Amino acid sequence: SYGDAEKKLEILKDPHCGAFAVIRLCTYFILYFALCASVKFTVRFGVVWILALTLERAFSGLAVASFPMAKNTGLAHTFAEAADRITVRRVLIIYTVVLGAAMLMLGGWAAVLAALLVFWRYYAVSKKQFGGITGDLAGWFLQRAELAMLAALAVCQWGGIL
User: Fold this and answer.
1) In whole angstroms, what is the distance from residue 78 CA to residue 26 CA?
2) How confident is the model at residue 100 (pLDDT cuts 50, 70, 90)?
3) What digits encode the pLDDT tens for the residues 27-49?
4) Type and span of the H or E element at 89
5) Following DSSP, what letter does each residue of 9-24 receive, concatenated?
6) pLDDT, tens digit, for every residue of 112-139?
């Protein structure tokens, strides 16, 4: 939608799925399947992938504890209000640094870079277009980060780096 933030938030409430959402969902599944089929899952790749999945969830928690909320209802808002945001931020920053360092040592630098870029984009889009994050946007971030990190790892593996 090219409407204001209120219009976009209203669209997110609608449980129905539009045609463009179905097209994008199918595209996502095709890309994800193609990337999974194109990589060789070695032990090293598997460890980096598990760390990548953990890293994206740590970033998601960091966003809930740090980013502004778009509305005063919903699951993301409930988690944000129930948490000691300062402590959660500190712990998750340490956690993301440790996970990122482990991934760097194993050759997963491209996945760390991809996660950081998607995290930055998540913040920019959510703040500019919605006025903050929602649970739906948190899910959008997780799927985008997972796809971007898998693509980055696939490219590294094709290039002989990983």
Assistant:
1) 31
2) very high
3) 999 999 999 999 999 999 999 99
4) helix 85-105
5) HHHHH-----HHHHHH
6) 999 999 999 999 999 998 889 888 899 9
Distance CA 29, CA 14 (A): 22
Q: How far is CA 89 from the centre of its chain?
A: 17
75 has pLDDT over 70: no
Listed residue (149, 142, 89, 141) closest to 115, CA to CA:
149
Q: How confident is the model at residue 8 (pLDDT cuts 50, 70, 90)?
A: low
**Contact status, residue 153 vs residue 39, Cβ threshold 8 Å:** yes
**Whether the Cβ atoms of residue 118 and residue 145 lie closer than 8 Å to each other:** yes
- What single-letter DSSP state applies at residue 68? P
How many structural domains compose the chain? 1
How large is the C-alpha radius of gyration of the chain?
17
Asked if residue 117 lies in contact with residue 148, where contact means CB atoms within 8 angstroms, the answer is yes
For 40, the token pair is 């060789």
Q: What tokens does 153 get?
A: 């790892």
Residue 44 belongs to domain spanning: 5-158
User: Contact, 93 vs 62, CB < 8 A?
Assistant: yes
pTM of the model as a whole: 0.86
In the chain, the N- to C-terminal Cα span, in Å, equals 40
